[in-house]
Amino acid sequence: MSWFSTLEQAPPIEVFDLLKQYPNDDFPQKVNLSAGAYRTNEEKPWVLPVVRTAETALLNDEKVNKEYLPILGFEAFSKLATRILLGDDSVALAENRAFGVQCLSGTGSLRVGAEFLATKLGKTVFYYSNPTWGNHRLVFLNAGFKDAREYRYWDAENRSLDLNGLLEDLNNAPEGAVIILHACAHNPTGCDPTQDQWREVARVIKEKKLFPFFDSAYQGFATGDLDKDAWAVRFFVKEGLELLCGQSFAKNFGLYNERVGNLSIVLNNPEKIPAVKSQITLIVRGMYSNPPAHGARIVHYVLSNNELYDQWRDNIKTMSSRIKEMRQKLREELERIGAPGSWNHVTDQIGMFSYTGLNAAQSQHLVKKYHVYMLSTGRISMCGLTPSNVEYVAKCIKETLT
Ligand code: PMP
């Protein structure tokens, strides 16, 4: 007899499954376009120079110890993280009605925020874009939400935003529903609303009394500029909307595995902040008690030093520019060799990913036959492309389509 005998096998998580297979594949020309992690032109992971500088300083600082952080994390880090999101001139910050809680990267910030909304504010319904990052649904359902719904986002035929569909779905959402919005560099489509389109989204959210929950996993990665990439969140705040925003420092600091994140909360009544903090304290205490310090110390070190802050922005530019160059190269190569279809979407899209338009069978064919690892939704990470593999990838895409 075993208590586990009725347990069924859960499905694998596609992206982690591919990451596991990749190192064991001995095909010489294999290419990894599945992971959402930056790579250099030499296909190597990159520890940002500012991160090295901060780590060296922290290592030599005898005051740094391994004691517990408070339950809500390293407050000085959270203050700076919320500030880069909302901007130095934020009215909400000036009015002391915005604050942050250090959480376990972007995922943990979403999870803590979602559990707060579900268990403390009684929210049950949430909406995510179709398509969205593969984890939103699971994170929100695990956090206690009951009703997962989609809003239209991607117009596959025109490879662009389905604004009318999006607005119609939000218009029909029940009052109080939580709407997950990608702050920038939408994953997986690489297609963001324009500023005018965001204005319309905000208008419906306000009119229909919906609750915006931004997911900001790529600030700096979309345009290379931290302020531009935070425009939508800042606009919603200016419009007087209350909101939550989960911030990840995995991508823009290259701190994937350090799990550095921040849940920013903007509310209208600052008097309620102690109550919100006390409730989130109970959530975190019962989940993981308190977050790890190392990554948050690195980010804090950089953000609180003007010179390093400027260097960090240069590091972000290095990453976002390489991605843009690879978009250009891939498109040029696909067009040069005459791969069927149009490829302007590759350069129109922004951020880390491109939604190629390849279907599941074609994507799996690229993995199996050509050892080009990508998701079955047709999503490729631009970071895995380099000057030495882009021609091979373009050739494989062409052969798959012809
Ligand atoms: N949201 C989106 C849209 C993402 O793409 C990711 C990372 N792939 C995350 C959140 C969370 O990432 P992490 O937990 O590693 O910060």
From TrEMBL:
The keyword Translocase does not apply. Belongs to the class-I pyridoxal-phosphate-dependent aminotransferase family. The lineage of its organism: Eukaryota, Metazoa, Ecdysozoa, Arthropoda, Hexapoda. Homodimer. One of its GO terms (cellular component) is cytosol. It catalyses: L-aspartate + 2-oxoglutarate = oxaloacetate + L-glutamate; 3-sulfino-L-alanine + 2-oxoglutarate = 3-sulfinopyruvate + L-glutamate; (2S)-2-aminobutanoate + 2-oxoglutarate = 2-oxobutanoate + L-glutamate; L-cysteine + 2-oxoglutarate = 2-oxo-3-sulfanylpropanoate + L-glutamate. It comes from Sitophilus oryzae (Rice weevil). SUPFAM superfamilies: PLP-dependent transferases. The gene is LOC115890800. One of its GO terms (molecular function) is pyridoxal phosphate binding. Its EC number is 2.6.1.1. The keyword Cytoplasm applies. It is found in: Cytoplasm. In eukaryotes there are cytoplasmic, mitochondrial and chloroplastic isozymes. Keywords: Aminotransferase, Coiled coil, Cytoplasm, Pyridoxal phosphate, Transferase. Residues 29-395 form the Aminotransferase class I/classII large domain. This is Aspartate aminotransferase. Its cofactor is pyridoxal 5'-phosphate. It is an enzyme of class 2 (transferase). InterPro entries: Aminotransferase_I/II_large (IPR004839), Asp_trans (IPR000796), NHTrfase_class1_PyrdxlP-BS (IPR004838), PyrdxlP-dep_Trfase (IPR015424), PyrdxlP-dep_Trfase_major (IPR015421), PyrdxlP-dep_Trfase_small (IPR015422). Residues 309-336 form a coiled coil. One of its GO terms (biological process) is aspartate biosynthetic process. It holds the Pfam family Aminotran_1_2. Its main location: cytoplasm.
